[in-house]
Every structure is written in structure tokens, then in C-alpha cells.
Amino acid sequence: MESMLKVHHLSHNFGSHWALKNCSFELEKGDFLFLSGPSGAGKTTLLRLLYASLPVQRGSVEVAGFNLNKLKPRQVPLLRRQVSVVFQDFKILPHRSVYQNIAIALEVRCLPAQHIDRRVRAVVRGLGLENRIDTPCGELSGGEQQRVAVARSIVVNPQILLADEPTGNLDPELSMRMMDIFKQFHSYGTTVVLATHSRDLLARHPKAKLLRLDDGKITEANWPGAIIENCTDDDDTCAIGPLTMPDGRTAHGRRRR
Ligand SMILES: Nc1ncnc2c1ncn2[C@@H]1O[C@H](COP(=O)(O)OP(=O)(O)OP(=O)(O)O)[C@@H](O)[C@H]1O
């Protein structure tokens, strides 16, 4: 199977606070992963690292064949052609319409206008936004804005789709519809990583891969490609992970596989 994500000994700190501690896991093409854990556990931090919106401080990350430890600024747009993200704050343009907010993801790729129009309208239909297509996004409800953010991320057909609580603002029916869309993309071969608090969502997808974070550490995983570190925070190297040297060796002098 083709590897899509390799995260080894990943730790990340904000000042003196370690938001991620020595996380290691791998995903293959077409995997569907739920990232769970309480508020503050490090889910968003992990997604931001995978999207290269935070620099890798410790450990190593490979996403869709890109080594993020060595990623140059000019390579970031290339990575983001393969990886789409829906963040919690949506990042949509309030004065632009639903159509424009979604089309922009394709316009930056200089695709033919007809092709853009077809794809945007198909996604808008799929997410039930037809009657809001010309509405400025600033006038939409939270749930509608969330659907626009999801539409913009899937319209580009990414290899990897990262989503941070994509059903958080939606009622149960829309939430199911949104999940159906993620599952549809997954069935086309897209690798999906979805962060959620929702126990209900996890219970409804018992076959998906699950990674639980607590206080920055992996505490639960249901497949062998993830490592649960049984160590305490007192053991610094174990909890925070070995330092990665620029040549890829760890501070222990062991070369990574
Ligand atoms: N930019 C930042 N500056 C300082 N601390 C941060 C920053 N971003 C996150 N943190 C801290 O890192 C920890 C992990 O935060 P993160 O947002 O990754 O958690 P989360 O699991 O996504 O939480 P939620 O489910 O509430 O979104 C928290 O303690 C948070 O306060």
C-alpha cells in the first residue's frame, strides 16, 4: 500500500507548553482516521503541522511524499495541492459569495472557467447550498459557513483531506449528510483525517482508524501503525521524543527507517 502520512516522534511546544508529545503513527492511501480527545489535547496542533501551517520542531513528518522537515516555502503551494484542510474558523471571505469562495480554490490553479463552474455547482449541490450560491458568506449561518469551508476543501479533489470538527456546528441531519460526503470522497481513494469530540460519530464508524490524544500524547489507537508511549512526563525523552538532527538522525544517533 502507498504511504500517505508518516509521523515519527513528533513533539510541538508553544513556549513552555508541550501541545504534542512524541507522537508516532502512519497512514496509507485511502485510510479514514478519526482523531479524538478532549479540548486542548493537541488535535488542531497536529492538523496544523500536517498542513505545514506550523513548522516541525521535533520529530519528522512526511505528508503525501513531502518531507515537511525539509519543506521549502516555495514547495508549500505544491503540498497544498495534495492536501486540503477545513479549519474550525473556516477562513472564508465574508464579502464574497458562496460560489466565489468555493471557486477560488480552483481559480488559483488556472483551470478552465467551464470546468470550474461544473465542479463548483456539483459540490454546492452535494452540500445542499444551491439556494445560497450567490449569497455573501458573511450573511450565512455558522452551519452554512462550515459547509462552504468543506466545499472549498473537497472541490480540489485532494489526496488527503484534513478536517477539524467539520460537523461541529451542524444539526444531526446535516452532520450525517456531511459525513456521507466525506465517506464518498474516501471511497474515491482520498485519505481522510477528521478531528472530532463527538462520541456519537465515533460510535457510528467502528471500522475507521481511531487515534486518541490526551494532553498531547497518543493514549489509544486501534491499528498497529500507531505507537502508544507508556511513559510519564518526568521521562523527558520518552514524553517529548528525541531531538531530530538536520540529517535525519535522532539525538540518540540512530538513523530513522
Ligand atoms: N498558538 C498557540 N499558542 C499557545 N498555545 C497554544 C496555541 N495553539 C494551541 N495552544 C495550546 O496547545 C494545546 C493544544 O491545543 P489544540 O488547539 O491543538 O487542542 P485541540 O485538541 O484541538 O482542542 P479543541 O478540541 O478545543 O479544538 C492547548 O493547551 C492550547 O492552549
Automatic annotation (TrEMBL):
What is its quaternary makeup? Homodimer. Forms a membrane-associated complex with FtsX.
Q: Where in the cell is it found?
A: Cell membrane
Please give the family membership noted in the entry.
Belongs to the ABC transporter superfamily.
Residue runs in coiled coils: none
Q: Name one GO biological process term.
A: cell division
A GO CC term assigned to this protein in UniProt: plasma membrane
Question: Which Pfam families does this entry report, sorted A to Z?
Answer: ABC_tran
Please list the GO terms describing molecular function: ATP binding; ATP hydrolysis activity; transmembrane transporter activity
Organism equals Desulfovibrio psychrotolerans
Show where the ABC transporter domain sits: 5-240
Q: Classify the protein's membrane topology as the record does.
A: Peripheral membrane protein
- Can you say what this protein is called? Cell division ATP-binding protein FtsE
Q: What is its main location?
A: membrane
What is the name of the gene encoding this protein? ftsE
| Entry function | Part of the ABC transporter FtsEX involved in cellular division. Important for assembly or stability of the septal ring.
- Alphabetically ordered keywords of this record: ATP-binding, Cell cycle, Cell division, Cell membrane, Membrane, Nucleotide-binding, Transport
